[in-house]
């Protein structure tokens, strides 16, 4: 499953199975599921079958209506997690994709929701996964497999570990309906391909959330194939909330609609976004006086926003990047200034997610990555450009439904031209394609 720091690297590039469907299961099934062997490399360390709560055969009447508060994927439209891995900044974005897919398991055709997971390490694309989920009639949530793409130097590097229920193994419970201390369940259960076993260690916990304390949290220990384990926290309205192990950390920074706020977006937030984009252009033309004045205004806007207690993890990252941006402007460093302007904008968009629809934020993120590609191209960073193209292709899948047929066709065509220029190692042409595509997307979506 996603959110497992130790699982980074077990991937494959297989397509999603099935098609849109709302069909219901009609096939009778056994009352219990078989208890498979322990999936660790040594075959030891797993809990006894008597502790497991995932051996009752689930039924699925309304599988895409996921109401389990500890795994509310059908309402988790967009979530952001931040942290660090190997002392490098780590970031993940999860997005509920539109529509459903169908997975065939034990002769049943079960509609599932698909969530897109994108992970970045030190600003570079690290991993993408497409995860399939459905809720059983008893309220438990089940995991029906994943397609995973592990990136190195901008390109897919490994094609191992993807699994699909009914093909490599059974569907796996990812959250019980009413978890209790001592409950054991396997969130991935295809030994030799993927394996994770979870033991609930505490319930009813209060955890620190993006907007304050969150009650009703659950803590669990997750056992992996190699025998290592890590602690995970789940919280109502958020699902997986925090993962820590081996000194690494991945924690929920913001989720919508859980953390959405009513009312208009603060003017200071809009000012920060406009100013950061302005500095990006000022750095390109070497107008350091203008950049200095602009970054001063940005600091004033941020001082006002910070007094409103924004989500702490996003605030910390934005503050660090804004300070680095000021140093870069003072030192008149064009490349560094451009990069820090992009980093600041990314955090500003994260904060705007509380006020704007997720699709609008993803459209803005798409545009931002066209600018990131231009920065990498100017630095002659081919690996960076290749990875940026991949990011754009994946974000396209989040926003395609917001465009009409002609708009989708045009953006797809421009992405193909961008990919062709990148494959030809023509960085100047790639930067030009990116600039034109970003501007065109704004033309298609503004107003």
Give an overview of the whole structure.
The chain is of the alpha+beta class and 447 residues long. 34% of the residues lie in helices and 29% in strands. It has eight helices and 15 strands. The chain has helices spanning 267-285, 288-306, 312-330, 334-352, 358-378, 382-399, 405-423, 427-445, and strands spanning 78-85, 88-96, 101-105, 108-121, 124-135, 141-152, 155-158, 163-164, 172-175, 184-190, 194-209, 212-224, 229-235, 239-245, 248-256. It has a 15-stranded antiparallel beta sheet that branches. Strand 12 and strand 13 form a beta hairpin. Helix 1 packs antiparallel against helix 2 and helix 4 (334-352) runs antiparallel to helix 5 (358-378). The radius of gyration is 22 Å and the shape is globular. The chain starts with 77 loop residues before the first strand and ends with a helix.
Keyphrases for this structure?
about 450 residues, alpha+beta, 15-stranded antiparallel beta sheet, 8 helices, globular, disordered N terminus
Tell me the overall shape.
Answer: globular
**Which residues form runs of ≥5 with pLDDT under 50?**
1-29
End-to-end distance: 39 Å
Which band does the percent of strand residues land in? 25-35%
Q: How many DSSP H or I helices?
A: 8
| Share of helix, binned | 25-40%
Q: Over the alpha carbons, how many angstroms does the gyration radius reach? A: 22 Å
Average pLDDT taken over every residue: 91
Order of helices and strands: EEEEEEEEEEEEEEEHHHHHHHH
Overall number of strands: 15
Secondary structural class = alpha+beta
User: What is the makeup of the main sheet?
Assistant: 15 strands, antiparallel
């Amino acid at each position: 499953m996603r959110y497992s720091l130790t699982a980074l690297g077990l991937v494959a590039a297989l397509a999603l199975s099935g098609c849109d469907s709302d069909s219901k299961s009609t096939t009778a099934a056994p009352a219990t599921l078989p208890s498979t062997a322990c999936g660790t490399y040594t075959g030891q360390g797993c809990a006894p079958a008597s502790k497991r709560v995932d051996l009752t055969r689930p039924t699925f009447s309304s599988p895409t209506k996921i109401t389990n508060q500890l795994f509310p994927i059908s309402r988790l439209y967009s979530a952001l997690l931040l942290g660090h891995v190997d002392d490098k900044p780590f970031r993940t974005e999860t997005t509920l994709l539109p529509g459903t897919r169908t997975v065939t398991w034990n002769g049943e055709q079960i509609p599932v929701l698909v969530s897109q997971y994108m992970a970045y390490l030190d600003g570079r694309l690290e991993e993408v996964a497409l995860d399939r989920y459905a809720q059983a009639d008893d309220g438990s949530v089940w995991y029906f497999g994943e397609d995973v793409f592990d990136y190195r130097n901008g390109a897919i590097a490994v094609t191992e570990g993807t699994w699909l229920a009914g093909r490599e193994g059974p569907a796996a419970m990812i959250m019980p309906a009413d978890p209790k201390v001592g409950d054991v369940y396997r969130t991935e259960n295809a030994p030799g391909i993927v394996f994770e076993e979870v033991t609930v260690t505490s319930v009813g916990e209060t955890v620190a959330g993006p907007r304050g304390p969150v009650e009703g949290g659950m803590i669990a220990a997750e056992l992996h194939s190699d025998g290592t384990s890590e602690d995970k926290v789940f919280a109502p309205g958020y699902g997986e909330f925090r993962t820590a192990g081996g000194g690494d950390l991945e924690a929920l920074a913001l989720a919508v609609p859980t953390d959405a706020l009513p009312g208009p977006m603060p003017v200071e937030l809009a000012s920060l976004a406009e100013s950061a984009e302005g500095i990006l252009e000022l750095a390109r033309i070497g107008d350091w006086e203008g950049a200095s004045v602009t970054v001063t205004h940005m600091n004033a806007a941020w001082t006002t926003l910070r007094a409103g207690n924004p989500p702490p993890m996003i605030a910390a990252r934005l503050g660090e990047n804004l300070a680095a941006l000021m140093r870069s402007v003072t030192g008149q460093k064009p490349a560094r200034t451009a990069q820090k302007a992009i980093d600041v904008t990314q955090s500003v968009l994260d904060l705007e997610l509380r006020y704007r629809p997720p699709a609008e934020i993803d459209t803005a993120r798409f545009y931002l990555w066209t600018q990131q590609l231009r920065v990498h191209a100017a630095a002659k960073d081919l690996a960076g450009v290749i990875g940026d193209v991949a990011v754009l292709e994946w974000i396209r899948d989040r926003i395609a439904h917001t465009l009409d047929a002609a708009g989708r066709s045009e953006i797809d065509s421009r992405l193909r031209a961008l990919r062709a220029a990148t494959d030809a190692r023509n960085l100047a042409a790639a930067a030009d394609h990116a600039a034109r595509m970003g501007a065109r997307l704004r033309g298609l979506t503004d107003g």
